[in-house]
Design a protein that fits this description.
Elements: E1 3-12, H1 16-25, E2 36-38, E3 41-45, H2 52-59, E4 65-72, H3 81-84, H4 91-94, E5 102-104, E6 107-110, H5 120-130, E7 136-145, E8 150-158, E9 163-168, E10 171-176, H6 187-196, E11 202-205, H7 212-220, E12 224-229, H8 232-244, E13 250-255, H9 258-264, E14 270-275, H10 285-291, E15 292-305, H11 309-323, E16 328-341, E17 344-353
Parallel strand pairs: 6-7, 11-12, 11-14, 12-13, 14-15
Antiparallel strand pairs: 1-3, 1-4, 2-3, 5-6, 7-8, 9-10, 15-17, 16-17
Helix pairs in contact: 6-7, 9-10
The structure holds S-adenosylmethionine (SAM).
Length: 354
Amino acid sequence: MMSSKKPFLKVPANEGERIRKILLEHGFLDTDFKIVSQNTSLYMPLHQKLQKEQIIGITGPIDYDIGEREFESALQGPRTLAEALKDHLSASELALVPRAYDLIGDIAVLEIPEELSEHSDLIGRVFHDVHKNFSTVLAKRGAISGTTRTREYQHLAGEIKTNTIHTEYGCRLAVDLSKAYFSPRLLEEHNRIAQLVQENELVVDMFCGVGPFPVHITRQRKAHVVAIDINPEAIDLLKDSMKLNRLLGTIEPIIGDVRKYTSKSEEAVASRVIMNHPSGAFDFVSDACRILKPNGVIHYYDFIGGKNPEDEIKNKAFKLVEESGRSVQEIGRIRRVRDSAPYEFQMVIDLLIE
Ligand SMILES: C[S@@+](CC[C@H](N)C(=O)[O-])C[C@H]1O[C@@H](n2cnc3c(N)ncnc32)[C@H](O)[C@@H]1O
């Protein structure tokens, strides 16, 4: 039986069933591994290490411990997709089988290379046999495109659906992949921005999508977030998420073109503006500057290639702010958020504006 080192949450055995259900519901429990019972405690295998606030936030006051240890695999038969497909595909095809996938709530999303497209259904079925805990297996079809930044998906196995509840850092997010943009790869960035927000700030999220920034922020801080998106389906999903979470702050969801919102604004209202629309934010920097108070912060996102993406985003953002009639007082963090294409990153720069 194979085993692996995993982060764990150790809880008293008499609390085990309650905590197991909570961890499962929040997507933290790694069901590919067996829970270990030792003396009067249970060790629950987790996908990621949890912070104290996350644990107490979802379980309430509890006697617990965290760490890492070996867990036995709960899977029977082949452990990897390539292993399970070895009698069905040639060696050169097996080399192209995806090693990773996106996990969004109870949906797994595979990226199947063009060369294997005729085997997509088989790959999806076999993937579902290996990973039985997913309700649905989808494949990406084509690139993210258009104003709403959505793409098509092909159903491969399991329940036919594209909607789910995705949990990141304890935030429950209503997602429908066919209707509105969502990426599970931005969780660190959502949480990073939420931690920078101070109590009573007024934040404008210009391109909120299904609202991960607003939900992260208002779960952690007593702040007000104006959440704007041109895609009505994205705002409907945000409204669902507002009911799924206990929020300390408030969210004001607005459907529409952010330019209409900023041009109506008579005075600068925001202490912070989030511009996470990396393929189009450059066109809206003057709109952000218009609603931003003096000494306010802009989080500017862009797709940047080249050898020195840090310098490039800095130069581009400085120029755009200056063209808008404002100036950069200080640069906070410049960060490579994720790979967006070969030799290209989704970058973010935090700018304090005079
Ligand atoms: C990359 S996605 C949003 C990502 C979101 N901030 C997140 O972290 O998941 C960009 C979003 O901008 C929205 N959008 C595009 N043009 C817009 C505009 N002019 N006004 C408002 N929203 C816009 C799209 O509908 C899309 O949901």
